[in-house]
Amino acid sequence: xxxxxxxxxxxxxxxxxxxxxxxxxxxxxxxxxxxxxxxxxxxxxxxxxxxxxxxxxxxxxxxxxxxxxxxxxxxxxxxxxxxxxxxxxxxxxxxxxxxxxxxxxxxxxxxxxxxxxxxxxxxxxxxxxxxxxxxxxxxxxxxxxxxxxxxxxxxxxxxxxxxxxxxxxxxxxxxxxxxxxxxxxxxxxxxxxxxxxxxxxxxxxxxxxxxxxxxxxxxxxxxxxxxxxxxxxxxxxxxxxxxxxxxxxxxxxxxxxxxxxxxxxxxxxxxxxxxxxxxxxxxxxxxxxxxxxxxxxxxxxxxxxxxxxxxxxxxxxxxxxxxxxxxxxxxxxxxxxxxxxxxxxxxxxxxxxxxxxxxxxxxxxxxxxxxxxxxxxxxxx
Length: 381
Ligand SMILES: CC(=O)SCCNC(=O)CCNC(=O)[C@H](O)C(C)(C)COP(=O)(O)OP(=O)(O)OC[C@H]1O[C@@H](n2cnc3c(N)ncnc32)[C@H](O)[C@@H]1OP(=O)(O)O
Ligand SMILES: O=C(O)CCC(=O)C(=O)O
Known about the structure:
EC number: 2.3.3.14
Helix content: 40-55%
Distance between the termini: 60 Å
Order of helices and strands: EHHEHEHEHHEHEHEHEHHEHEHHH
Strand order of the largest sheet: 1-2-3-4-5-6-7-8
Radius of gyration: 25 Å
Mean pLDDT: 97
Keywords: Nitrogen fixation, Transferase
Oligomer: single chain
Function: This protein is a Fe-Mo-cofactor biosynthetic component.
Strand content: 5-15%
Number of strands: 10
Protein name: Homocitrate synthase
Bound molecules: acetyl coenzyme *A, 2-oxoglutaric acid
Structural class: alpha/beta
Low-confidence stretches: none
Largest sheet: 8 strands, parallel, barrel
């Protein structure tokens, strides 16, 4: 049992906010409702569901999501501006993320303000939200490039003004997991009274690793999106985070993992961003075996080459006949189409399977296997 398993961990999924911010992606209200219902049914703890400041249409979708009465907490994204928070309240929302730029580069060259302004605006916006009884997460945009002592100061202000948690954002996806763990650990040690969320982007392909590193550093909330959708290279993927916590860290976050493939397909379709066949955890072919040594091992015991059974995430196993097949794999492929083979027959077929696969540059389909089997029978006649 991993030592971390005693620590509570909550998944805050932002497919409907950061996921939809993927350039060119739009979810209809119907799609947002379908995605939210499925995420809720599988046990995701919190859904960041949109940005009320965007306008009437977005607010009407958020209201419809509120009306669903889901078990998951619904939270909206807001700039540290009172009208943004008022727009959230008008949707019936009871939890808000109040976002502030916290790195000097963004404070100076994006919002054209000062650290003092950020501190003051935090007090003002947070004070307003708390006076309206809202659950508040303070979002530290670009926290990974911010001065750590300034972050600590902001977190102290946030805690003293009643914030419920602080979101540490690696907005540009620049951290390595070791640095992520160190930074989050320093902040959770400095301000232990405030829950921390880790929000990791995937610009260097490290989002999932960084999400887990943030958790190891003391974060109790992990921000995810289905399929890792999100700004630029995306966010830490829900399916990767949940399964990595389960398999690599021994932590069950209470999410029904058997529904991961289905939610992945739903979001893939709604976002018009197909899921690559080799996508970690949920790709259609991540439980496909062709290579002789691997297939033989899997047929004897799937645990030889599968980190968890495919059914655990709603997928199934495929044994494929192709260029790298061995005898035992070929016997299995023929067995699956109702043709029992002896080892000698499989050995004879192996060279033909290899050549055919090289010719078509891919795996053999049942009709190809039947045709090759006929050539074998003819040769024997
Ligand atoms: C890292 C992230 O993913 S943060 C989430 C970002 N998501 C989005 O931007 C998607 C939705 N956004 C929108 O619909 C629009 O940008 C809106 C409604 C939020 C704002 O629209 P506009 O008022 O037209 O402003 P515009 O988008 O051009 O510029 C952003 C403004 O917000 C300000 N701003 C940015 N972040 C913050 C913040 N955390 N707190 C306060 N103000 C902020 C900027 O300084 C800029 O204001 P300025 O024009 O006075 O300099
Ligand atoms: O400020 C926040 O709460 C989140 C912003 C965000 O999505 C990011 O910084 O990547």
